[in-house]
Amino acid sequence: MDRATRVGRHAADGAMRALCCALMTLALMWAGAAHADLAPADGPKHLAMRLVAESDTPRAGAPVTLAIDTRPAPGWHGYWRNPGDAGFAPSFAWTLPKGAAVDGAPQWPVPTTLLIAGLMNYVYEAPYAPLVTLRVPAGLAKGTPLPVRLAINYLVCTNAICVPEQQDLNLDLTIGDGAPSHGADFDRWRSAIPKPLDAAGTYQVKDGKLVIAVPLPAAAKVENPAFFPFGPDMVKYAAPQTVTRDGDRLLIATEGAPKGRIAGVLRIGPDLGLSIHADAGTVAQASDRSGWAAALLAFAGAVLGGLILNVMPCVFPILSLKALHLARGGEDERAARIDALGYMLGAVLMCVALGGLILALRAGGSVVGWAFQLQDPRIVVLLIALTFAITLNLAGRFEVPVPQFASHGGAAGSVATGALAAFVATPCSGPFMGAALGAALVLPWPAALAVFAGLGLGLALPFLAIGFVPALRRRLPRPGLWMERFRRVLAVPMALTVLALLWLAWRQAGATGLAIGIATMVVTGVVLSLGGRRQKRGEGFGWALALAALVVPAGLAAALTGGAAKPAAVGGDAFSESRLAALRKEGRPVFAYFTADWCLSCKVNEASSIDTAATRAAFAKNKVAVLVGDWTDGDPALGRFIQSHNRAGVPLYLYYAPGAAEPRVLPQVLTPGMLAGLK
After folding, report:
1. Are residues 181 and 95 in the same domain?
2. Looking at the 3D structure of the chain, how many domains does it have?
3. Cα 306 to Cα 433: distance, rounded to the nearest angstrom
4. Are 413 and 403 in contact (CB under 8 A)?
């Protein structure tokens, strides 16, 4: 059969298929008309709809997102932007105030498939909400009414009949300060909108089969995948789809004969999808690579990241004291190894426990990442008490047998010290660590927990080396009076950690948080100093004082319930995906960075590289826009954006060059020269 014949047959098949689909749609609509009592013009609709604004008081000149909150009646379904083999997509007619405009087509959530009599439909059987962006005109005074009207025509069906319906939706807004009115609802609706995958895929048609290769990291979790094309003549709707993983790509095998670019939505999980596109090319055959390589790479990155954490000011004193404990002498080889193994066990167990809690919370729908506990100011107050207690211990104000900061032996003390070191290290993130923990969140849970265990192992590696290598212990300085002096020097970085936590309490809860933090310090200091005086007289610390040291800070922390507005983030405008899209549409280069007040690495980078005169001058010269995502309070929208870049937390630094398909992910340790070179 020659090519012309094949093309002719293909065209004939396409025409016949289109005719059959049209007849089926008309038949269903005729059946719906025959059941006119199902959709009375003035009665309840089979798709209950309401128009909702993210802010009922939008700012003049700023965009506001609208949602068409749609709820199908039991047994009925609405249609996606591409209905598939039958049905038709909804049509929208907007009536807006002068100067207002709807920006582009609606954003649709991920649909589901419905196969009836060999015809594939792309539908919604559960509640859903298309989103649109309304451009509010500038120059309007606060209090100005902003009426929005929408006439929508659509088709609603069961498995047997279809009914065309029409609704007029009204929404009356008032110009104001742009404060969110339905934040939780829009967080949920946005999470169902497919995220754009900037990297292009490739497709190839061979022997009547269509194979689409989509670039997707091997660590990305994919569940019940399916491809939904945006338009006709891309794939055969009802043809089976087989999706397989091949390293850092997904291969979609189906039927179709596209003639240009393919574009659509790839479902990767319940209500999760990616907007993808693919061009014609050659798709290499699948290899036998597996996800083990990604898991091993993430594990190695976590070990390296944990190793680097040892130089952080809140971890280094604890490690140093444990090393000095060995330098005191009197411990044989076996005792040194037990000490080292206990320290490692404590660090690994703490990291695995925190990682398991993160995975459990994420499975329950929460968007959390590494150091998530510091998003709660009550936990910050408890950490103030703990770190201040460590500071007083290092300063010699009291001695405590648990967690036995190197002045006491025993495996139990070493386990407690390792766990403590891992816990106080959670505000920190460094090279290798961010990518490794980001990968852990999309790996199967056994591999993910292994990555978190690798973080604890890296944290314990220096002490393991000292415990198991006698030559290293022999190189430690000989015991002497200098050790007590050095111990007091180590109290300085711990005291700085206390001050940083006080600042964080103020940022999260305002003057109330700062006052409770200071009160916690005072109470902790008084109780521990009284216990220290008893110890110097040869008495025990005292059970009453020990109980007070635990209960009083917990009570003060529990009293902290309110929050306060925080000062503006450093160095730019607040991040939002709509603002990012607008800047990119203007062709502006964009530097977007994601930070948190509890993130030590973030603050170091901001002070040394971002918030500097040289960087500001370079950005002004090159017209680089700066967007700041402040994740201090665990904003779920920011959390999802961070997660989409395979990161478990902050810092995250992205640079969007004009015209680039995807952002450049910058290192987690910045230099002023690195930022000055962005154009």
Report:
1. yes
2. 4
3. 7
4. yes
